[in-house]
Amino acid sequence: MLFKRLITVGVFFVGISAVQAQKKFNSFSGETIFSMANVSINGKQEASRLRFSPVFNLQFLTNYNTQKHFGWFYGIGIRNIGFIYEKPNTDSVYKHRTYNLGIPVGIKLGNVSKTFFYFGYEFEIPFHYKQKLFVNEEKESKVSVWMSNRVPSIMHAGFAGVNFKSGFTIKFKYYFNNFLNSSFTETVNNVRQSPFNQMKVNVFYVSIEWNSFKPTARRSSKKQTGAERFSSIAF
Questions:
Q1: Mean pLDDT along residues 209-216
Q2: DSSP string across the chain
Q3: What residues does 75 pair with on adjacent strands?
Q4: Which CATH number fits domain 23-218: 1.10.10, 2.60.40, 3.30.70, 2.40.160?
Q5: CB-based contact 34:206 (threshold 8 Å)
Q6: Which of 42, 70, 179, 192 has its CA at 20 to 30 Å from residue 118's CA atom?
Q7: Could you give the angle at the alpha carbon of 220 between the alpha carbons of 217 and 226, nearest 5°?
Q8: What are phi and psi of 138, to 5 degrees?
Q9: Whether 160 contacts 117, CB under 8 Å
Q10: What b/e sequence results for 36-70 when a residue is b if at least 16 CB atoms lie within 10 Å of its CB, and e otherwise?
């Protein structure tokens, strides 16, 4: 049902682009993420810490500015998403993170060549999971798995942000589904366990980006002479 809606939205935007003048361009940017999480165990809210992830968060977008005050975009990106959780009444801290391959789709409202608001939807596929346990600030254990079933196979998120004329962008993003797979089981000391069955975690973050919606610079095909190169450096 969700994918049918996405297809409908895509067809709608393509139809708009076909009948109106548009400017199409590609953009490439990085993203610095400050994330938190709503963590609950057996329905009780628990504490989480601020998580800082400057790498590796990369995004490539194809932009369509169909009017001065309206545009839309889609793309592909890689993001480092996670949360830090303090286990109640202990000195244990868990750090969970995934690297996700995401496909965002969104629209722009405002002066799309200067300052504007944007919002959209993104689905992400977690392809690498890592978990670390710290006790009294000392690392006790680590789990690192490709395509792990400790997390859902697809994550769904909504985002909204503002892009300023300078190219500076602030974005808020919220993940709708549980970050952890509550059905996951593992065997520890010959005992079958479900470590996440009582946990519900919704990650959200604020991020800063630069030049997310500005055309990627192209190299000129014309070769410069030595004098031209000197001139461009000196002046």
A1: 92
A2: -HHHHHHHHHHHHHHHHHHS--EEEEEEEEEEEEEEEEEEETTEEE-EE-EEE-TT-EEEEEEEEEETTEEEEEEEEEEEEEEEEEPTTSSEEEEEEEEEEEEEEEEEEE-TTSSEEEEEEEEEEEEEEEEEEEETTEEEEEEEEET-TTS-S-EEEEEEEEE-TTSEEEEEEEE-S-SS-TT--EEETTEEE-TTTTEEEEEEEEEEEESTTSPPP---SSPPPHHHHHHHHH-
A3: 61
A4: 2.40.160
A5: yes
A6: 179
A7: 125
A8: -110, 135
A9: yes
A10: bbbbeeeeeebebeebebeeebebebebbbbeeeb
Taken as a whole, the chain contains a residue count of 235
pLDDT in tens, 151-179: 999 999 999 999 999 999 999 999 999 99
CA 227 to chain CA centroid, Å, is 45
pLDDT of amino acid 221: 46
Tell me what the mean pLDDT of segment 43-64 comes to: 93
**163 in Cβ contact with 128 (< 8 Å):** no
| Pair 178, 200: CB distance under 8 Å | yes
pTM above 0.90, yes or no: no
Pairwise CA distance, residues 102 & 168, whole Å:
21
Q: Would you tell me how many other CB atoms lie within 10 Å of the CB of residue 115?
A: 12
The domain locations on the chain are: 23-218
Token code pair at residue 123: 């689905």
Nearest to 149 by CA among 201, 93, 87, 195: 195
